[in-house]
Write a structure and sequence with these properties.
- This protein is α/β, with parallel strands linked by helices and 134 residues long.
- The protein has one domain (6-131): 3-Layer(aba) Sandwich (Rossmann fold).
- It has six helices and five strands.
- The chain has helices at 15-27, 40-48, 70-77, 97-105, 117-121, 123-131, and strands spanning 6-11, 32-37, 58-61, 88-92, 109-112.
- Strands 2-1-3-4-5 form a five-stranded parallel beta sheet.
- β3, α3 and β4 (88-92) form a beta-alpha-beta unit.
Amino acid sequence: MNAHTLEVVLIEDNSADVFLIRRALDEAGLRFHLRTFRDGEEALRFVEKLEETSAPDLLLMDWNLPRIHGKQILEALGHCTGLGKTPRIVLTSSESPVDRIAVEQLGGVFVSKPRTLDEFMQIGLKIKVILGVA
């Protein structure tokens, strides 16, 4: 992997999950800068101001968020030219096939939130594969 520092946007209202995601990315050996937002409204204000040249390398988000639901966020992100081809990973505790289909139809990658710490630490490796840096 090169020495590039990944710019990662994380939309997650659960501070414990933010901590675990940060740790999983660290343990996977990724160099990153993590910008976090606690709800979809905050995140959309930020993303709408982006230009394609400043797009993050990765957008991680929860599906069930306060203020604006993940589905509405993905729909809006589809119209944000500043995101370019930034991968959008929806990390969720939902096991609903309807949610999985919605995420995929909106251009996201559906990843179930792990139930154990060991499984959670594997998220960083999944992200490396998705980004093609594994």
